[in-house]
Write a structure and sequence with these properties.
heterodimer; A: mainly beta; B: mainly beta; 4-stranded antiparallel β-sheet; globular
Chain lengths: 114, 113
């Protein structure tokens, strides 16, 4: 039973347009959400995060929106650039005792076309 | 900045062989992790070490053992490799086990034939 779902395996966007990547979760205990970006043959790198007490967090071209009632978050990239082409993983964090556990979605391959 | 380094990057094993994946971090982090990534699935936690001297099972620990050799190093061992363990393995670290952000190595591609 996947607790974090990214239902779109792939997304293609024209350079300069907005990319919107979506993520849904089922566990109400998740209180922190992260997006990681992964290039081929590299490890995932942290991109942006949001606490469950917020509904929006912005960092340059990247904005993450959280809708707790819908258990949905999205990553907006504006404007999209060819260098943004990568796999994007959504992750959700919950506290288990004193340890944080990260649960990852299956990833969305973003391709930004020049 | 090296960050998290893991070796080897690529390995082919025969069923039943054993091997150890090595991982080291230079960020003075207390906590370290081993994940595996399979096609169409997210990263799944195999084992983690909250601090030097401790290890705990994650979501998919069967078939693996780990050793937290010191604060810097955390190894993953496959005692008797199986084709189901063909995967990409990522080591990661975080400042402490309650940290929200973890930092990954570049991955180790393991094929078991």
């Amino acid at each position: 039973d996947q607790q974090v779902k990214q239902n779109s395996p792939s997304l293609s966007v024209q350079e300069g347009r907005i990319s919107i990547l979506n993520c849904d979760y089922t566990n109400s205990m998740f209180d922190y959400f992260l997006w990681y970006k992964k290039y081929p043959a590299e490890g995932p790198t942290f991109l942006i995060s949001i606490s469950s007490i917020k509904d929006k967090n912005e960092d340059g071209r990247f904005t993450v929106f959280l809708n707790k009632s819908a258990k949905h978050l999205s990553l907006h990239i504006v404007p999209s650039q060819p260098g943004d082409s990568a796999v994007y993983f959504c992750a959700a964090s919950s506290l288990s005792g004193s340890a944080r556990q990260l649960t990852f979605g299956s990833g969305t391959q973003l391709t930004v076309l020049p | 900045n090296a960050g998290v380094t893991q070796t080897p990057k690529f390995q082919v094993l025969k069923t039943g062989q054993s091997m150890t994946l090595q991982c080291a971090q230079d960020m003075n982090h207390n906590s370290m992790y081993w994940y595996r990534q399979d096609p169409g699935m997210g990263l799944r936690l195999i084992y983690y070490s909250a601090s030097e001297g401790t290890t705990d099972k994650g979501e998919v620990p069967n078939g693996y053992n780990v050793s937290r050799l010191n604060k810097r190093e955390f190894s993953l061992r496959l005692e008797s490799a199986a084709p189901s363990q063909t995967s990409v393995y990522f080591c990661a670290s975080s400042e402490w086990v309650g940290s929200n952000t973890i930092y990954f190595g570049e991955g180790s591609w393991l094929t078991v034939v």
